[in-house]
Predict the 3D structure of the following.
Amino acid sequence: MSESTFMGVERDKIDWKPIINYTKCDYCMECVKFCPHKVFEVRESEEIKLIVRNPNNCVVFCRACSKICGPDALSFPDKSATTQRIKEIRKEMESNG
Amino acid sequence: MVENYAVLPCNGLDKCAGVISRELAIKLCENVKNEIICPVFYRVAEAKYNKIAGKRPLLVIDGCQTRCASKLAAEKSLKISRKVTITEEAKNHNIELRSNLRLLENENALIEIILNELNNDEDKVTLFSDETNVVYNFEYVTFQNGKFIFRVPKNPEVYYNENDCWAYVIGNRARIGVTDFVQQNLSDILYFTPPDIGAEIDQFGEVGEIESSKSLIDIISPVSGKVISINETLVQKPELINENPYELGWIAELELTDFEGDKELLIGFDKYFEIMKKKVEDLNG
């Protein structure tokens, strides 16, 4: 499921997506099975077998995939900074009418 | 004391956290009247362990976030009463787990810490507020999709975020919870992890977790504040969230710290109801 906006802000203006630490990731693919929003993509034939394919599908402020990651290889941007940025964008939108 | 539990540990013998889980389970069953469920044998001798799990509350010990023991409990439709995750405990206590499969000083220290925490939990419970007599006068508006019914309170004191959580604000306090959209999606909720009493939560910060056999979600707080009470009943009866996530299934109560600022990113009934309907329709194609 892809949301096009979050709190009235275009989703692609909000930097919120999982960041894969490839030194920790063991390609167990639990995150792929877990995430119903198809954020991740498996690339079996590539050297890097897992990528964040659809960052805008990621539910803003959801970090659930990092909870189920056994090797603790997933992290997210700073929540407060993201909240602040959303507020700023909304203000810019208001002032631009 | 932690006693009369059925203890279901991770048995991941190829990882340090798994070895710790196993040892912790053994210690719990050695010293007090708990009974162990072997996760390996459970798969081939279901009847034996179903009987134990049917008679006693279940304590699950997960080694890491892969949560094999929790998943096994969900697969067997067992209700989890208590849960410990070794890697999280290690993180909370600044104990570094390495790849050794023999228990050394750090690992034994962690086991002792967890044992103490489990044994002190009864004291913790008394800290919870039993203030559950909030009078709700919710007026629900209903939306039906197939056999699923979604109710949403339309009262002006109830605010929502787009993460499907609500806040019922009275004065400088808010009671918070998840909406019908969450509980319908998760289906049967089997486990609730409450936030800590006294924890300072930012707006959009995590204020607990709920888990079903289908999935696990963070509860994302609509408001910022300090946790002053939790719905203690949910620890034993998480299914109340399925029954009514707005009343008996409330999650926590917060003393608000910046509600005026929070309001900027909150929505009222009209907007949330439209967003929720769209999500439901998207999910069902």
User: Anything to note?
Assistant: The two ends of chain A are 29 Å apart (CA to CA). The first strand of chain A starts at residue 5 and ends at 6. Chain A has a mean pLDDT of 92. Chain A has one domain: 11-95.
